Amino acid sequence: xxxxxxxxxxxxxxxxGAIVAVVLFSLIITNIFIKQKKQDxxxxxxxxxxxxxxxxxxxxxxxxxxxxxxxxxxxxKSEESLKESIKKKVYEAYRxxxxxxxxxSSDLNGTGHHHSKEHILNTIKxxxxxxxYNNARGYFFMDDINGVKILQPFNKAFEGxxxxxxxxxxxxxxxxxISQTIKEKTEAYDKYYWYKPNDKTKVYExxxxxxxxxxxxxxxxxxAYVVDFEQELKKKILNWIKKIRYGDNGYIFxxxxxxxxxxxxxxxxxxxxxxxIQDKNxxxxxxxxxxxxxxxxxxxxxxxxxxxxxxxSSNKIAYVKLFEKxxxxxGTGFYLDGLDKNIQQKEKELIKNNELVxxxxxxxxxxxTVFLIAISFYVSSIISKRFTSYQKxxxxxxxxxxxxxxxxxxxxxxxxxxxxxxxxxxxxxQPLSLISMSNTLVKLNKEHKGLNTKKEINEAIxxxxxxxxxxxxxxxxxxxxxxxxxxxxxFSTQSIFEKTFKLIDSEFKTSNIEIIKNIDDVKISGYQNExxxxxxxxxxxxxxxxxxxxxxxxxxxxxxxxxxxxxxYIKIRDNVGGIPEDIINDIFTxxxxxxxxxxxxxxxxxMSRQIIENMDGKLEASNVEFEYENQQYKGAxxxxxxxxxxxx
Length: 648
Fold this sequence. Notes:
The structure is a single chain. By secondary structure, this protein is of the alpha+beta class. The chain contains 11 helices and 19 strands. A hairpin with a 2-residue loop joins strand 18 (about 620-630) and strand 19 (about 630-645). The chain is elongated and about 160 Å long. The chain starts with a helix and ends in a 5-residue tail after the last strand.
């Protein structure tokens, strides 16, 4: 507030603050532009490097993917050829089995003897066992629809066993595919892992073909191990890969996982294990490439390589990819020698252009700064004049608002003053009557001595004294209520309600309203008279609502006060029926009233909320339904929430 009230300080800020801001802004913007141009220079150089690198990276990556595609095409062609081969083998075995079955079961020899199906099956099994091929690497097998192995010539232990749930090394239950082929009475290819006839310790990838054999509701099948035909295929592929060239020094290199070179531009490297080859820095580039490929599967790697008959070393970026099917690491790369010359020439051009641009920025910045200073000085002068005018208007409005608030407070107290005077008169009736009677007794004893005892006369005089004290106390209570001076005091919830009911007690003596109190003794630091006014407003409003409802039903006013955490909660609830929903949001609005014109001012609840909020609290109204003495009621509830230690 002191800062805001310092008008000269504020006006100086308005006049000169804008100028200072413009100068600082111009300096900052100029500095930003200069830094930006330097960053642009660095960015352009970096872009040049990146373009060179990215273009070559794209080329080498594309080369590797082309090689991989070519290898996969060759594998696919070879697999198709292999599939066609085993399919022909199965068809041949099927034809033999069919001839044997038809011959044995129809007595073609005319012997009059028909063999059993089991005998015929054994004959077929012997025939198919003898039809092994590829130096006994290839053989025929038979399975029935339930997954039982009928024929397994090189592993008789499997015959007669149910293999339906059997899994290969990858968890594939391939026998179920065989069963499905039988159910569909068709033929199918499949891939799985199985034992080789000469190696029962390891499983190998196998391509198989099954054909449905109706007489035994089974399949006849055979397969070929991929590893057997891949060796010849690898030799063929490596032979044409080592001849591939692109660009100036582009070639493809291939290593196995152990570091043996399979393909290279240098013929003498092929077949050697080069994993321990070191560069001039003592690093192991081949080992690093292999480790990278095993871990990352594919990607770019930077290392030091030699070329030109191993006489010159240069940094090289290679793209390598692990061909997992054969455990090959395939790669190619490019050298970074060509990058340095291009960058040096481009860097000179960029630095020269950058200096010219920075000089232009500085000149423009000076001109713009001078222009903005002139404008800001002119604008600040106008703002300064308007500020002075607005300040006067604001102060006038503040004064008017303060006067209105004072008037509202006075109106609020005056609104209850008439009723308070009536309460004073009512509370004085009994003590005045007692004074009159006691005075009459003393007067009669003065005129007629001995009419009353001395004790009775003394009691009469004491009654007069007590009545006078009561009259004085009553006046003090009402005077304190209307005391305009705010004093922050420490008081309790019980004491504030005692004072409240002293002031309005007479209004409730003749009513049929039963007040149920549940008031904890909680200490509050705040303005007692202000809170007293709020409580009187709320309780009197509840009494007025009871009077509106002419009913024989019981009328209750519930008052609760309790502490929770660092707050005191005061709830005043009636059973009149509640506030109409269409006006409940308006009851705290100034001059809003539901009473007759002569009975209500409409400022009581408004001022009550203002008082509570000035004490850092809240005043809320709501309609509630509740049960009391086994009866359901509905009424309005006003809740006051106050901090125990008010900041006001």
